[in-house]
Amino acid sequence: MSKTIPPVLSVVPTRALVDETFKVVVENLPPASPVTLHALLYSEDKDYWEAYGHYVSDHRGTVSVAEDMSLGGTYTGKEAMGLLWSMRPEPGSRTGLRLRKREVTSPMLVHISVYSGHITEGFRKQSPLASVPTERWYMAPGVQRIEIKEKGVRGTFFIPPGPGPFPGLLDMWGGGGGLLEYRSALLASHGYASLALEYFSPGELQSADLQMQYFETAFNIIKDHPQVIPDKVGILGLSLGTILAFYLAAESTKIKPRCCVCISGHHLASNRLMIDGSLPNDPKKTRFDENNYRIWRDVVLPVPSDPSQKIDMRKIKCPMLLVNGDDDQNSPTVEAAEDIANMMRSGGNLHLLSTLTYPNTGHLIEPPYSPHFRATNFIIPTATKEKVIVLWGGQSKPHSDAQEDSWRKILSFLQHHLCSSTIPKARM
Length: 428
What we know:
alpha/beta, eight-stranded mixed β-sheet, six-stranded mixed β-sheet, 8 helices, 19% helix, 28% strand
């Protein structure tokens, strides 16, 4: 009597950076056997996130996630990384959740499992045929993490492994405020000395952080670091961080960014932005969808014809890459990009502008294989700390494709403008 060989699940590699692919294969299944591949993550916020796909084994009793079609689940079709990018909160979870890594010195632990049959719920109550734990890292071995508290600036500086010197980046997030480190940690893993800048935080940073001097000082902390190439420092911004990047590149006389990457932002802010932090704000233009989620994209529309109501993009003197989604419900990025192009054309600097616009893509364009968040909780950084649910936009599959493509092109842009030669990526 022959002994039945249990299914074998392999995930290669089991330890990788978050923007690296893995291969998930199940062997030793009966031919034409229906199975469910499942990914489970327990977040730092103590919520379970999951993704799953339905497969049927081939004549050899094998399923390969990269080569075979998912017939159902949180993703369908041939999607090598669907078990990551289609993650969503487990049914019954709190509303408006967003998955973000705050402690970058530890990995995201994702358990990949295979279950018999095509199932859609109750995974944690069932026993898998096989399971493999995997680690997804933002911070590669050898990357230094240094807390910055000098000259009034707050943030975290990530320096790649090795003696350097390295190209540098000032990394600025959006209007939600606080300190987010994961993108800078990943950029350092790709060879850039990256400062994740804190602003819009309680205390002294709440009122003082929108002065131009704060951001100029942060830029110069990077530039003056002994492991940084002083004339190879760029700026990367998302949302409000993009507005700040535009302003610094156009108006600052004290810093000269080598290039700027601007994700999901606009230039529709007057010259008072750096004086009193004022952004255009007309509450009457806030819209709500059928779920009562807030839509803020119209607040700064229509694009003003008065140049004084916009950052003067004609003054830009460094290469700029705009990364936008055409379903951005938070910021009018497509309209802004058209006006930016017109302004730069009139200023004779259009040759410095590159624009990527992705269909059915929302506001929160993250590193590859990050889950898509169409709407999430958002705490408005005012004295009242009002908590709302904001509609960001996008559809999961095209948004995921945009994240993967744009990250590759962002790294290529940075390589071209900040590096005199190819810089090695840190190895896991």
